[in-house]
């Protein structure tokens, strides 16, 4: 049997989970309010907007997001119906490109995302606390084994990860 967490370890872990849930909820709410995008749509658009020529192969997008093909396909279908992206097939290659509307929605959402993250960091952490948290997170991530399903390898360091649906 594995050893149990101490009460201090368990309490710290619950607080970390709660803080993560709260921060993700705030950021997700701001993105939805600003641009009517889910966090999953925001992540897809983030990858496409950052890509060369604002398009990617579907398998590249799946790898960047750490999603399986089925989940991505369903998400892309919903987004295509909302005119946020276009999908094209050329032989065996499935390309995904962001539309003008998708770029506009992403820009609104990204501004809201940045403002929400900065607000959360400034309101609740001093510069020294933020730097300590960043060091701890970076060290933990560097020491951790590779996850079975990556969170999102393409997230810029300035972004606080929003939960995907």
From TrEMBL:
Listed Gene3D superfamilies: Winged helix-like DNA-binding domain superfamily/Winged helix DNA-binding domain (1.10.10.10)
Ranges in coiled-coil conformation: none
Pfam families, per database record: MarR (PF01047)
Residues annotated as domain HTH marR-type: 30-130
Stretches for region Disordered: 134-165
Record's protein name: HTH marR-type domain-containing protein
UniProt organism field: Amnibacterium soli
């Amino acid at each position: 049997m594995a050893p149990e967490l101490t009460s201090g370890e368990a309490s710290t872990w619950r607080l970390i989970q709660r803080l993560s849930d709260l921060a993700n909820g705030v950021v997700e709410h701001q993105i939805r309010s600003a641009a009517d995008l889910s966090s999953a749509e925001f992540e897809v658009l983030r990858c496409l907007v950052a890509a060369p020529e604002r398009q990617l192969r579907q398998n590249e997008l799946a790898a960047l997001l750490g999603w399986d093909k089925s989940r991505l396909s369903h998400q892309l279908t919903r987004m295509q119906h909302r005119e946020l992206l276009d999908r094209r097939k050329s032989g065996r290659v499935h390309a995904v490109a962001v539309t003008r509307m998708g770029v506009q929605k992403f820009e609104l959402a990204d501004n809201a995302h940045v403002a929400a993250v900065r607000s959360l960091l400034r309101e609740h952490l001093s510069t020294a606390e933020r730097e300590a948290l960043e060091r701890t997170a970076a060290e933990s991530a560097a020491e951790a084994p590779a996850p079975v399903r990556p969170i999102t390898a393409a997230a810029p360091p300035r972004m606080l990860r929003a939960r995907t649906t």
